[in-house]
Amino acid sequence: MAEITASLVKELREKTGAGMMDCKRALAESKGDLETAVDILRKSGIAKAEKKSGRTVKEGLISSKISSDAGAIVELLCETDFVAKNEKFKAYTSEIADKVFALSETGDVSAAINENEKQHLISMVATIGENLQIRRAVRWTGKCASYLHMCGRIGVMIQYEGEGSQTELSDICMHIAAFNPSYICSEEISAEIIAREKEIHTAQLVGKPAQMVEGILKGKLAKWYKEVCLNDQAWMRDDKLSVKQANPKISIKKFIRWQVGEA
Question: Does residue 155 belong to any structural domain of this protein?
């Protein structure tokens, strides 16, 4: 039986991320064999993860990784705000964003990253002591930019065409974080949704002369577009301009705005 030294415990901690007492117990059980101790901790981690898997996760962080020709964004959930502020949890969220970025798939890659991270996630659950869940992950190719608000409580990623400085791109992402548009432009909105909006406003115009209703409806729809369409929203830096007017060289193709724990 190998002597269970402090350096052996330290080595096991570095390999597994488990707590000191857990490492000591695993080494005692394995009679000082490091690899067997790793297996013991992994098995223990699986048991702990299974016990915690039913717990509600509503806190967490969003992280992203951007290069000149691709972008990735991920949301990792935990049980408490205390863990969400933990440096190990923050580092792991950033690590997952890197791994999402490295995938070959594009679009919604939640299933792929969850499959790839299955064993590592179990190990992190055992180490951190809370249920963790990679809730969603997206990877896009092309020109992308991102912005994280409230230390990662809100995350935005855009895919764009054209040219813009890093400041301009960050400002657009910040605008999306603040004003939460539903669409890029009115052309994206389905006929069904527009018809429903018209129906709502028409019901509010009962008693108005028929010849007035059409003009009023046009005005109400135009106002609604300014509320829900990114390009039409008043620009956060100058509300006399729309987002599109303020950023004429940048064309937003799609965007994501996530908030931790949202429905």
Answer: no
Question: In whole angstroms, what is the distance from residue 73 CA to residue 101 CA?
Answer: 8
Split into its structural domains, the chain has a count of 3
| Residue range 138-186, pLDDT digits in tens | 999 999 999 999 999 999 999 999 999 999 999 999 999 999 999 999 9
Q: From 35, 52, 69, give the residue that closes a domain.
A: 52
Q: Which domain holds residue 196?
A: 186-246
- Helix (H) or strand (E) run with residue 222 in it: helix 210-228
C-alpha–C-alpha distance, residues 29 and 42, integer Å: 14
pTM given for the model: 0.80
In a domain, 153, yes or no: no
Q: Which residue spans within the chain are E strands per DSSP? A: 59-66, 70-78, 107-108, 133-141, 143-149, 154-162, 234-235, 238-242, 250-259
